[in-house]
Amino acid sequence: MKQVRLGVIGIGAQGGTYAGFIAEGKVKNMVLGAICDTDPEKKAMCAEKYPDVPFYDNYIDMLESGNVDAVVTTVPHYLHPEMGIEALKRDIHALLEKPAGVYTKQVKEINEFAATKPELTFAIFFNQRTNPLYQKVKEIVDNGEIGPIRRTNWMITNWWRPQAYYNQSDWRATWSGEGGGVLVNQAPHQIDLLQWICGMPKKVYSNVKYGFQRDIVVEDEVTTILDYGNGATGVFITCTHDVIGTDRFEILGDKGKIVVDDSKKITVKRLKKSENEMNAEMSWADAMKIFMGADLGEIYEEEVIEFQSVWGQQHISVLENFAANILDGTPLIAPGSDGIHGVGLANAIHLSSWLGKEVELPVDEELYFAELNKKIEAEKKETVTQ
Questions:
Q1: What is the pLDDT at residue 22?
Q2: Cβ distance 80 to 73 under 8 Å?
Q3: Roughly what angle, to the nearest 10 degrees, separates helices 313-328 and 13-23?
Q4: DSSP 97
Q5: Is pLDDT of 386 > 70?
Q6: Is residue 241 packed enough to be buried (19+ CB in 10 Å), middle (13-18) or exposed (0-12)?
Q7: Which end of the chain is more exposed for a tag (fewer CB within 10 A), N or C?
Q8: 120 closest CA partner among 314, 337, 320, 339
Q9: What pLDDT is attached to residue 384?
């Protein structure tokens, strides 16, 4: 195989973007093998835009057509694991759009099945892992430059969505259609980056508001306390009703601090002595000098790194990495099995708010599934009543 023939399942906003990149020759070693969508209008659009690309209204037919070596699942969240498994069953490589699923029980199924097919490539579309800024943050943390992590804070509230956004489709912002709100739709990348860079917490305690500022049944406001199990703690805040919005990620370590502003700038302050050493050795008189505005350059060195984001490049990088793994075994940036971590963390945040108590990780998958089904049933009854 010299090029990977990719089948796009779902030619909406994301699927259309990926198909466009590939058709325009922007993705190395990848061509558009086929397109699948259940919407007749999409078929007409594709006939005009991609006249030489086979179109299917049933993804199983596409998988069995012989026209694709791999697929990407740009469909509603609940369908990602099911479609991924069906692809792998037929020896078709699978790239799941994020999140990997709605609940860990279903994500576990595809992870376990993919493990029986090690010769196939199974990946997830965590394009922020290809972002040079977050790769640099991870490198600094992994290298121990700021020492053991003591605290993480991420406020990511620039997901503003007006009511009109939610009114576009009946399935949006529903438990049965989307499986949640901001945690499963807007913030999965940050949830993944948080655990990818800082590790998974052991416990979470959350305060989540459902339909707080929007006429929806799922969450539009989230504040979560993270407990990493070693004394380190964190806070994760996100919402969809802050039109001004903030994106600020802080990681405090024993030897310094990283601050990321607007996913564009990293400020790294590296202590010349660890805080533990300063605490043990510094006299009160010297500490007073700090309080009185002494030159902090004697305490830490500061580095500021700014990044320019090229729209679409991160998505292209994921597609190229996926193709490279298929063709020559290049390591995956985001193995499909990693998808369960972000889903598990989002599930725990939901479950903590539903139960009104701290929840341990890994999340109790059967309990979460049962509680989610209660939400779905209540939603159905409410719809019927109305």
A1: 98
A2: yes
A3: 70
A4: P
A5: no
A6: middle
A7: C
A8: 337
A9: 58
The number of helices, as runs of H, and strands, as runs of E, in the chain is 14, 15
Single out the residue of 180, 194, 187, 230 nearest to residue 76, CA to CA.
Answer: 180
244 exposed, middle or buried (CB, 10 Å; 0-12, 13-18, 19+)? exposed
Q: Tens of pLDDT along 151-178?
A: 999 999 999 999 999 999 899 999 999 9
- In tens, the pLDDT along 127-139 reads 999 999 999 999 9
Alpha helices in the chain (DSSP H): 13-23, 40-49, 59-63, 79-89, 104-115, 132-142, 163-166, 182-185, 188-198, 275-281, 284-291, 313-328, 339-355, 365-385
Residue from 85, 91, 73, 71 nearest 6 by CA: 71
pLDDT at site 385: 56
Ramachandran angles phi, psi of 25, nearest 5° = 75, 20
Q: Which tens digit of pLDDT belongs to each residue from 326-345?
A: 999 999 999 999 999 999 99
Lowest mean pLDDT: which of 184-193, 228-237, 305-314? 305-314
Scan for tokens 């001004």, then name that residue: 244
**What are the angstrom distances between the C-alpha of 271 and each of 8, 125, 215?**
49, 36, 47
Tally of CB atoms within 10 A around 254: 17
Among the four given CATH numbers 3.10.310.30, 3.40.50.150, 3.40.50.720, 3.40.50.2300, the one describing domain 4-125+312-335: 3.40.50.720
Residue type, 277: E
358/374 Cα distance (integer angstroms): 20
Q: Which CATH number fits domain 129-308+342-380: 3.30.360.10, 3.40.1190.10, 3.30.300.20, 3.10.129.10?
A: 3.30.360.10
Contact criterion met (CB below 8 Å) for 10 and 37: yes
CA angle 6, 322, 337 (to 5 degrees): 110
Q: pTM of whole model > 0.85? A: yes
